[in-house]
Design a protein that fits this description.
GO terms for molecular function: methyltransferase activity. The chain is α/β, with parallel strands linked by helices. The protein contains three helices and seven strands.
Length: 143
């Protein structure tokens, strides 16, 4: 299904496919809007969904943009954060981005793992300010 997706400073012409693995509603906070093919990976109403299993793709490096809002804090009891990040790395194209919104301790753990696998990371305050419990992490998989 084609849908509108809001992006920040990322070139919209580079985005063709998006995975939205979020447990919260997306917020409009970007500079550009682009039509993309979007696949929703999380259904909050289905509690038996296990996102730490391998993601079904025809081949690796399929997606340009992955969005994960509260995914890690919700699933950290059932899934290994490293396993989820490695699966994201497998399905993300070189030059692709990952946007993560989660709690501060989870963001810090993800940032360590992301740097270890060679992603470039940028941490931001959420719209709630610098002392909020949520932070944003923007990761880029470089060539």
């Amino acid at each position: 299904m084609a849908t509108d997706f809001v992006v920040g400073d990322y070139d919209p012409s580079k985005i063709e496919s998006v995975v939205n693995a979020s447990y919260e509603e997306g917020r409009e906070s970007g500079k550009a809007r682009v039509r993309v093919w979007k696949f929703g990976a999380c259904d909050e109403s289905k509690r038996d969904y296990v996102p730490c299993e391998p993601f079904d793709t025809f081949y690796p490096r399929t997606y340009d943009l992955l969005n994960a809002a509260s995914l890690f804090s919700v699933e950290q009891r059932r899934c290994n954060i490293s396993a989820i990040i490695l699966e994201m790395d497998r399905i993300l194209r070189p030059g692709g981005r990952v946007y993560i919104s989660d709690t501060v301790p989870v963001i810090e753990e993800i940032q360590e793992i992301a740097k270890a696998i060679g992603w470039v990371t940028f941490k931001f305050d959420s719209g709630e300010g610098p002392h909020a419990s949520l932070k944003l992490l923007n990761c880029e998989k470089r060539l």
